[in-house]
């Protein structure tokens, strides 16, 4: 007899009796079916023989009040077919990690959900779960979501980076394998019958559920509380994880890394990790979405006469921009494909803003040249338009 049988086989159905059938009703049903499918009466009929075996097996369990009780509790606990202890142990939505709970051979949630049961049936149902009464069902629990922060350099944020992240989260206590019990044999919480939740009627036919106060929602209560975790079954665990931050994150962005949060309990999935990213400013470059920005000083003659201007890029060789003659101060030009990496692998642009600088500390020759320029442009009033406009309004 295996747990799998207990969970998957519906002996009541086999005998065609209701779940609350009396012993006499079960006996009567069994006798009738046994006569009908007895091999002596069905010579050479394999199907009948198979059926007879099923009937006998069902009677072995349901006809014995102790076995019947264990069977009922096992089915109540693991759900009617909701739990499938297949080779992967991960079928259905309920994957009970016995290795964890009982501190036995560590099967783990992924590999050996079924292995954890092997042979230990009597202990499991005779010891732990019998105390909980019927209607017991231990729920898997999703791990906590964890929030963390990371500070990246400007370049790391643009290119993406793998950074170490030290996190603390709740994990099963190592000393008691998460049972909360010194001997690894907690009992099912009598208040919530292992569900971790209690219903509270509202009188209108509705009921609300609250986390069970007695077991703090765990469904289990330590008989002899673990000294390390004081019976909670949980411990703080610190771990350092390498986290990949995608290219193109910006300052203040919160990114979600699915399944990188706290570990789940009793086969529940892990929580998520949220990382708030801080990005250090760069002394030269700025960000505007996928584009990078840079301000480049040009002198008056470059702006007036035009010319080629070398512009630095982030992490690459400089690019040369052609400055048209008569470029005004503050004009922005675009160096295509020299910006931040986008999700699809292409790059944004580098937006280059020119800043016309005023020369100081002129040499005699430069001063003479500028005086000559002033003479040459004496007839032009740079504020003529300003005054015109001021009058007009
Ligand atoms: Zn409880
Ligand atoms: Zn403990």
Automatic annotation (TrEMBL):
It is found in: Cytoplasm. InterPro entries: DnaJ, DnaJ_C, DnaJ_domain, DnaJ_domain_CS, HSP40/DnaJ_pept-bd, HSP_DnaJ_Cys-rich_dom, HSP_DnaJ_Cys-rich_dom_sf, J_dom_sf. The keyword Ion transport does not apply. Zn(2+) 2 binds at residues 189, 192, 212, 215. SUPFAM superfamilies: Chaperone J-domain, DnaJ/Hsp40 cysteine-rich domain, HSP40/DnaJ peptide-binding domain. Residues 160-238 form the CR-type domain. Zn(2+) 1 binds at residues 173, 176, 226, 229. Keywords: Chaperone, Cytoplasm, DNA replication, Metal-binding, Repeat, Stress response, Zinc, Zinc-finger. A zinc finger (CR-type) spans 160-238. CDD domains: DnaJ, DnaJ_C, DnaJ_zf. Binds 2 Zn(2+) ions per monomer. CXXCXGXG motif repeats lie at residues 173-180, 189-196, 212-219, 226-233. Its main location: cytoplasm. Its cofactor is Zn(2+). Participates actively in the response to hyperosmotic and heat shock by preventing the aggregation of stress-denatured proteins and by disaggregating proteins, also in an autonomous, DnaK-independent fashion. Unfolded proteins bind initially to DnaJ; upon interaction with the DnaJ-bound protein, DnaK hydrolyzes its bound ATP, resulting in the formation of a stable complex. GrpE releases ADP from DnaK; ATP binding to DnaK triggers the release of the substrate protein, thus completing the reaction cycle. Belongs to the DnaJ family. The J domain is necessary and sufficient to stimulate DnaK ATPase activity. Zinc center 1 plays an important role in the autonomous, DnaK-independent chaperone activity of DnaJ. Zinc center 2 is essential for interaction with DnaK and for DnaJ activity. Homodimer. This is Chaperone protein DnaJ. The gene is dnaJ1.
